[in-house]
Specification:
The chain has about 260 residues and is α+β, with helices and mostly antiparallel strands. It has six helices and nine strands; from the N terminus they run E-E-E-E-E-E-E-H-H-E-E-H-H-H-H. It folds into two domains: about 90 residues, Butyryl-CoA Dehydrogenase, subunit A, domain 2, CATH 2.40.110.10; about 140 residues, Butyryl-CoA Dehydrogenase, subunit A, domain 3. The strands form three sheets. The chain has a four-stranded antiparallel β-sheet with strand order 1-2-6-5, with no helix packed on it. Strands 3-4-7 form a three-stranded antiparallel β-sheet. The protein has a two-stranded antiparallel ribbon with strand order 8-9. The two termini are about 25 Å apart. Flavin-adenine dinucleotide binds next to strand 2 and helix 6.
């Protein structure tokens, strides 16, 4: 979905899909395409009718070897390096009618539905990251001795670990609730936004807390803390920023 000039605001996509005999011609640039360098199939969104408001965009599934589709060089990212990303450019790229996802004009609906899965299930990985950091910190505060007192003997240190656990378990319960709403075929919008906001902010705060607990060692690659921080930092941005999740929550409350 994301383009150089469309991130949080996806109501006006510069990428266009022009109807031609038997399909569409796609033109435009998509940025921050996770797995872009490695994927064989791309799900993308383009404007088919700029005056149609909510129905302006259409979703497409485009094979990598389609003429007119060009994959950019892998971006040099600070974190999440196991998931490479790149630009994907379309230039008079012909996509047949049967590669439209849903119906023409349903792009926003397709996106909203897929985001509900992404903002809940994908973010479960950050529960795992927090569990790992908490385990690692517990080991460290029990072992590290400063002038005869372990780090675990200092209440500010143990308070920090209690807060880390609180954030983890609160986020986990919200994420399970979001998934339960999806499973029950109820509108999960509120719960998905609450879960995404809670889990991503918890991941970042907990990675920062772990770096405080590890002191100077946090900045040595061998402990994995600085890597966790770099991996957690974008969680509050991708799949919709924390600001956008707050707006969605306010909207669900009728504001
Ligand atoms: C690691 C990573 C992977 C990504 N993977 C993908 C991917 O696979 N596919 C994809 O489509 N995109 C992907 N993205 C892009 C991501 O979704 C966008 O970066 C994100 O939506 C924010 O858009 P932006 O960067 O244009 O920031 P902007 O929209 O320019 O926002 C900048 C700041 O302004 C705030 N802001 C903007 N508009 C508002 C508003 N209306 N109200 C309040 N605050 C606002 C934002 O919250 C943010 O803090 C990825 C990004 C990262 C970092």
């Amino acid at each position: 979905m994301t383009e150089p000039d469309a991130g949080s605001d996806i109501s006006r996509l510069a990428t266009t899909a022009t109807e031609v005999d038997g399909g569409y011609l796609l033109d435009g640039v998509k940025s921050f395409v996770s797995n872009g360098p490695d994927a064989g199939l791309y799900v993308t969104y383009a404007t088919t009718d700029p005056d149609a408001g909510w129905f302006a965009a259409t979703a497409f599934a485009v094979d990598r070897d389609t003429p007119g589709l060009e994959v950019g060089e892998p971006l040099e990212k600070a974190g999440l390096t196991a998931c490479r990303a790149s630009e994907v450019r379309f230039s008079r790229c012909f996509v047949p009618d049967d590669r439209v996802l849903g119906s023409p004009g349903q792009g926003q609906l397709v996106f909203r539905t897929s985001m509900r899965w992404e903002r809940s299930c994908l973010f479960a990985l950050y529960l795992g990251q927090q569990e790992r950091l908490i385990r690692q910190c517990l080991r460290h505060v029990r072992q590290r001795d400063r002038s005869g007192r372990r780090l675990a003997d200092h209440q500010p240190v143990t308070d920090r670990l209690a807060d880390m656990r609180l954030r983890l378990e609160s986020g986990r319960l919200l994420l399970y609730r979001a998934c339960a709403e999806i499973d029950a075929d109820r509108d999960p919008g509120l719960w998905v936004a609450l879960a995404k906001l809670a889990v991503s902010e918890a991941a970042l705060a907990t990675a920062l807390d772990a770096s405080r607990i590890f002191g100077g060692r946090a900045f040595l690659a061998e402990y994995g803390i600085e890597e966790a921080l770099r991996d957690a930092a974008p969680a509050t941005t991708f799949s919709g920023t924390s600001d956008i999740q707050r707006q969605l929550i306010a909207g669900e409350m009728g504001l």
